[in-house]
Amino acid sequence: MITFDNTSKSYGGTSAIAGLNLNIARGELVVLIGPSGSGKSTALKMINRMVDHDGGRILLDGKEIYSFNVRDLRRRMGYAIQSVGLFPHWTVERNIATVPQLLGWSAERIEARVTELLTLFAMDPVQYRTRLPHQLSGGQQQRVGVARALAADPDVLLMDEPFGALDPVTRAALQLELKRVHQASGKTIVLVTHDIDEALLLATRIVLLREGRIVQIGTPLELLSAP
Ligand code: ADP
Ligand code: ADP
């Protein structure tokens, strides 16, 4: 579904991604892992063109991503990041509904979807839908960030340390929730982390990056049994 074909990206003179070759099939949950600065975020952001590649190709369903309209591409992909980035003056409901509103969903459909997502993430819709982000705990904000990424039921979810900076209990709960969502929906998910336990728990395949290149790739079992 997503193919990096000898893809490269430099910032000024600094190479961030150097000749990346990777095929992500529909329904996979691929974890990009590696030390800070290894190119994980850059690889992820190139998929929805938050960052543009400058060498090789990136294909979505066989077509170079530069041939898609950027807005269409981003709406097709949910994006969730560690810093969450909720709009501070918007309610939980409006934050979650950002993309559905852009897509012109009806008020009833949006309301039903927000109720469904808050319930999925164990947040009582009656209590939470009209709250503002600062009236939520960090873990709840992060849930809302992930709910927002899922709202329009995108084919692809891109997640950059979505559970970073959470206490271990909340983190574990959200990891399990993501695993359930993935198994139930068959969505294609690309997740950046530097937490090896998270990678082993969630990934169908783990891609280990170093200095913009793949140094190891395989299922959790394959990597655990590698010499
Ligand atoms: P990671 O997500 O693994 O920490 P990044 O993709 O953020 O790695 O960064 C890869 C390399 O590219 C690093 O050397 C980083 O300093 C550099 N880099 C990332 N973003 C930018 C940017 N916007 N401008 C300049 N250099 C960048
Ligand atoms: P992450 O690992 O989640 O990308 P960083 O702290 O590395 O977090 O980067 C935060 C932001 O700063 C990102 O948007 C990234 O593209 C940008 N960035 C990272 N490294 C550099 C750099 N060397 N110069 C300029 N911008 C950078």
TrEMBL record:
Keyword line: ATP-binding, Cell membrane, Membrane, Nucleotide-binding, Transport
Signal peptide: none
The keyword Transport appears for this protein: yes
Annotated ranges, domain ABC transporter: 2-227
GO molecular function, one term: ATP binding
Family listed: Belongs to the ABC transporter superfamily.
Name this polypeptide is given: Osmoprotectant transport system ATP-binding protein
Species annotation: Rhodoferax saidenbachensis
Residues of the full protein shown: 1 to 227 of 317
